Amino acid sequence: MHKKLSPLISLSLLGFLMTINLFAFSKAKARFIDDYTTQVTFPAGYQIGSYIEFLAVSPIDAGSSGNYEISISYVRGNIAAAATFLAGISHYNPSLWREVGRVNSNGYAGAGSDGHNFTIDCNTDRLNPRFRIRAIRTIGITTDPLIVHIKIRSINQNASWTALNVTGSDLTVNKLLPMTNDWSLYVGNSHDPAGAEIAIKALENGNVGIGTAIPNAKLAVNGNIRAREIKVENANWPDYVFAKDYQLPSLKETEQHIKEKGHLPGIPSAEEVKANGVNLGEMNAKLLEKIEELTLYLIDMKKENEMERAKQQQKIEKQEKDITFLKSKIN
Question: Is residue 124 part of a domain?
Answer without folding.
Answer: yes
